C-alpha cells in the first residue's frame, strides 16, 4: 500500500491474518470470515464512506482445498488504490455475514456469489436462486461455478 493508504488502514492489523500482493500495486489482506463485516464497518468509520468504495465481490470455488474464496475489491480514494480483502469459507457450509447494511453496494456481488456458488450471506434478505442461473439448474440444485457442478 502507498504510505498514506497504509497508515489509514493500520487499524485493520488486528483483523489481518495474512498479507500479500495480488499483483503489483494491489495489496491483499486476508481476514477470518467472522470479521468481514466488522472490517468494513470500521473501515467506513475510520476513513469515511467518501474515501472508499466496494468495486466488486469475486467468489471462487477452491474445490481441491475444500473452500470457497471471497475477494472484496475496495478502491481507496483519493489514491485510487485497490486493495483486496479476502476470506475463505468452508465449501460444505459457505456462510458469512452480509455487509449490505454497512455497504449497500455489496448487494449485487452477494446475490451473484449466492446464486452461482451457494454462498449464504447471513442477514441479506434479497438472496434467491434464479437471478443469474437458469431455472433448470436451480431446480437441479446446481451452482454452475462450482467445479463439480457438471455444468
TrEMBL record:
Pfam families: Complex1_30kDa (PF00329). Residues 30-149 form the NADH:ubiquinone oxidoreductase 30kDa subunit domain. The keyword Transmembrane does not apply. It comes from the Archaea. The keyword Chloroplast does not apply. Keywords: Ubiquinone. One of its GO terms (molecular function) is NADH dehydrogenase (ubiquinone) activity. Coiled coil: none annotated. Belongs to the complex I 30 kDa subunit family. This is NADH dehydrogenase (Ubiquinone) 30 kDa subunit.
Amino acid at each position: 500500500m502507498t504510505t498514506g493508504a497504509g497508515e489509514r488502514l493500520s487499524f485493520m492489523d488486528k483483523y489481518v491474518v495474512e498479507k500479500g500482493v495480488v499483483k503489483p500495486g494491489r495489496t491483499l489482506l486476508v481476514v477470518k470470515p467472522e470479521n468481514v463485516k466488522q472490517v468494513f464497518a470500521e473501515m467506513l468509520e475510520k476513513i469515511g464512506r467518501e474515501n472508499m468504495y466496494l468495486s466488486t465481490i469475486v467468489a471462487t470455488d477452491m474445490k481441491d482445498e475444500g473452500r470457497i474464496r471471497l475477494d472484496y475489491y475496495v478502491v481507496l480514494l483519493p489514491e485510487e488504490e485497490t486493495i483486496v480483502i479476502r476470506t475463505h469459507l468452508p465449501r460444505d457450509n459457505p456462510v458469512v455475514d452480509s455487509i449490505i447494511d454497512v455497504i449497500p453496494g455489496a448487494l449485487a456481488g452477494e446475490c451473484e456469489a449466492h446464486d452461482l456458488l451457494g454462498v449464504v450471506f447471513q442477514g441479506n434478505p434479497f438472496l434467491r436462486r434464479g437471478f443469474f442461473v437458469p431455472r433448470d439448474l436451480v431446480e437441479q440444485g446446481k451452482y454452475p461455478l462450482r467445479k463439480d457442478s457438471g455444468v
